[in-house]
Amino acid sequence: MYGLRLESIAFSLGPIDVHWYGIILGTAALVGLLLAVQEGKRFGLSPDFFMDMLLLGVPSAIIGARIYFVAFKWDEYKNNLSDIFKIWNGGIAIFGALIGAFICGYFYFRHKGYSFWRIADICAPGLIIGQLIGRWGNFVNQEAYGGPVEEDFLRNTLHLPGWIVNQMNVEGVFHHPTFLYESLWNVVGLILLLVLRRRSFVRAGEVLMAYFIWYSIGRFFIEGLRTDSLAFHGASWVESLMNGLWSPMTILFEHGYLNPAEGNVRISQLISIALIIVAVTLIIVRRKTGAAKEHYSDPIINYKTGLPAGASEQTIEKSDDVSSRGNVNQPRDTTDSSMKE
């Protein structure tokens, strides 16, 4: 009577079930990669550079995301350790994914001889587009939704199509489509990042910082609507601070339910505030100290070769080519060896 809902399994190959969650996350990673590859060409970076980054970064992100989630839900997993690996059922945290990806990226960029800030700037729009697509995996799995709402609110106030409204019906109760709120917020963020990186005043690292600031603002307010937030038992003043910062939302919405047994402070809200403060501070400090003397539009220099990105590979190839030919352009001495004696 509530309409059809989407199934989590897209199709089956014999005994193997292929889940929409995995398809959507794979699509998100691919689109993010293509966006980074396209921008990397402007700086002479090869597609292979980003492909290798993806092959290392995606597993690192998934591992980080799962460890982060399981760590805060350990009571649910400690007696069912095999469930830790069932990521197709959901339960990966974006902040954990970012931690895993950035740790991997830092060492990969250093290994290749490039500044972390320069490459991370290029990847930032790919990250946000990956997140806006990836949230639809939560939609299919019916997770990461907000508190209860009336069906009329979804159909006639938000004017959502029936297939979204139906999926927001969980066991007979309709919920805020927080996955959609965050996805749309990230669409606007993507546009802002694409415009920002073409501004001449932008310094190295600041596109990445803008990504953190924009995403964290949206995540802070949207997180307050959710009913499945990871939480911890924090000091009363921290709880009051989070609630006070979120209070403008109470004009239109109610707080999503937070289980008191799990905590009184939403972890993602606290991390969001911390990221905003750190990002703004880094922009100011790096500019004042001269650490951000490079602009986004400047050539990317490989510090191992001292050459612009792309030029080092071409130089090595030319050098190898000359060496293989030997001194072919030098005059040959055809004098008979016996006459030299």
UniProtKB/TrEMBL annotation:
Record-listed a 1,2-diacyl-sn-glycero-3-phospho-(1'-sn-glycerol) binding positions: 135
Organism: Paenibacillus solisilvae
Function description: Catalyzes the transfer of the diacylglyceryl group from phosphatidylglycerol to the sulfhydryl group of the N-terminal cysteine of a prolipoprotein, the first step in the formation of mature lipoproteins.
Record NCBIfam families: lgt
Family, per entry: Belongs to the Lgt family.
Protein name (record): Phosphatidylglycerol--prolipoprotein diacylglyceryl transferase
Name of the coding gene: lgt
Subcellular location as annotated: Cell membrane
Molecular function via GO: phosphatidylglycerol-prolipoprotein diacylglyceryl transferase activity
